[in-house]
Amino acid sequence: MDKDIEKVLFTEEEIAEKVRELGRILSKEYEGKNPLVICVLRGGAPFMTDLVRRMDIPLEMDFMAVSSYGASTQSSGVVRIMKDLDTSVEGRHVIIVEDIIDSGLTLSYLIDIIRRRNAASVKVVTLLDKPARRTVDLKPDYCGFEIPDAFVVGYGLDYAEKYRNLPYIGILKPEVYS
Ligand SMILES: O=P(O)(O)OC[C@H]1O[C@H](OP(=O)(O)OP(=O)(O)O)[C@H](O)[C@@H]1O
Ligand SMILES: Nc1nc2[nH]cnc2c(=O)[nH]1
Ligand SMILES: [Mg+2]
Question: Which residues is 67 bridged to in the sheet?
């Protein structure tokens, strides 16, 4: 285990099992719809790339980068598009894939943009959800795990750009933040 991690919340195996389960559910739900699966970079990348390999239906992938946290553990409240989609979402069934929903600001902004671009449908799948932290009214359509209010890292989730490559999800030791 990484020396900066205080506690592992979800092991590599637990994550893999959950991703398989979500892949099965989405494959049934989107059969015959050729969904456009959108990864919210950078945090959503490991989850999205694992998830699509558990979906055994035709689908397309695209990537979007937004950022509201910078190098902080608090959302700035201002969501910026750093990289837009390359695909038109008009008439498409869109699945937005996120690593985590915290305040909900990032996703409510993204959902709004994609709806305004006339997608046929927009749904959200998140690996982690921290409902206690929500500042806007937003519920994921599919969620891996609900977690308590703690800052987590690993499997895409960073602190100051580190730890995204950990294969598990854990809580950092408090001294790491200082
Ligand atoms: O619900 P919210 O309060 O908006 O927080 C969730 C968002 O914050 C993180 O991304 P971040 O903006 O830190 O960028 P990153 O994905 O590149 O790490 C995370 O990956 C989500 O996208
Ligand atoms: N790494 C990380 N990024 C976040 N963005 C919003 N919440 C979190 C969190 O708990 N951990
Ligand atoms: Mg993100």
Answer: 80
Going by DSSP bridges, is the β-strand pair 93-101/36-41 parallel, antiparallel, or unpaired?
Answer: parallel
**Domain of residue 111, residue span:** 5-177
Taking Cα atoms as reference points, which of 124, 92, 128, 126 lies closest to residue 111?
Answer: 124
| pTM of the full structure | 0.94
Which member of 62, 84, 99, 102 is catalytic? 102
Number of domain units in the chain = 1
End-to-end CA distance of the chain: 21
39-53: per-residue pLDDT in tens?
Answer: 999 999 999 999 999
User: Mutate which of 69, 99, 112, 158 to test ligand 1's pocket (most atoms within 8 Å of Cβ)?
Assistant: 69
